[in-house]
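Sample A.
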Amino acid sequence: MSMAVKQVAIAYLAVVLVLSLVAFVFYGFDKRRARKDGRRVPEKTLHLIALFGGWPGALMGQRVFRHKTQKLSYRIVFWLCVMLHLVIVAGVVCLLRSRGWPTV
C-alpha cells in the first residue's frame, strides 16, 4: 500500500472516529434532555453527523442510551444516511482508483 493511500485511509478513519465520538455524546446528551424536557438536539443534526461518518458512534449511542430506537421514520432516515455515506466512500475509492491510485 502506498504512502498516499495510507494517509487517506488514516485521515478517513480519524474523521469517522471523531464524528462517532461526537455522535455518541450527542445521543447521550439528547436522551438526558428528553428525560428533563430540555432543549433537544435536532434530528437533522444527528442525521448529518451520521452521514458525514459518525454513524458507528450514532449506532452505539442508540443502543447504549436506548434512544431513537422506536421512531420508525427516524430509523429509516438514519439507515439511508448510513447507506449514502458508504456509497459516497465507495464512489471516492472508485474515482481514485480510476485516476491511478494504487489498489489496497
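Sample B.
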Amino acid sequence: MKKFTIKNETAMQTLGSELAKLCPGNTIIHIKGELGVGKTTFARGFIQSTGHQGAVKSPTYTLVESYPFNNLTIHHFDLYRLSDAEELEFMGIRDYFTQQTIVLIEWPDKGGKLLPAPGLTINIDYKSLEREVTLIPHTEATKNIIKKITTH
C-alpha cells in the first residue's frame, strides 16, 4: 500500500499519468471515492498520457468509454448510475477484460460479483482542500508497479 497527498487537479492527473506508463495490458483498476473527489480527473490523466488527444469525459450515462491505441485499449467504466449489476451482463461485460486491455472502473462496488477482481484499488478521500490517495495492490505485478510511483 502507498499513500499520497494530492494538492490539486494537475497533481491528480500527474498521478494518473505516472501510473499509466507503468501498467501493462490485462490490468484492472478499481477507483473508489465519494462523488466529486477526483476519480475521473485521475482517469483523464491516465488516458491522456497514453496519447489520447481528445476529451476524456466521465461515462456516467454510457457506462463505458473505450480508447483504442496501437496494441492496447483502455476501457473507462463509471458505474455510478448502474441500477442493477445484471445490466453489465447484458452489455457483455466479460468481453472488456482481455490481455490487450486496461480497465478503469469508477464505483466498482455497484458491479457486484460480475466484475473480475482488481489488480489495483485506488481509494481517493477528501482531506480538507487536498485529496488523500491510497494505492492498494492485489497482485505481485501491481506491488512492483506502485513501488515505482514517485508522485507526491
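B remarks: The longest helix spans residues 9-20. The radius of gyration is 14 Å.
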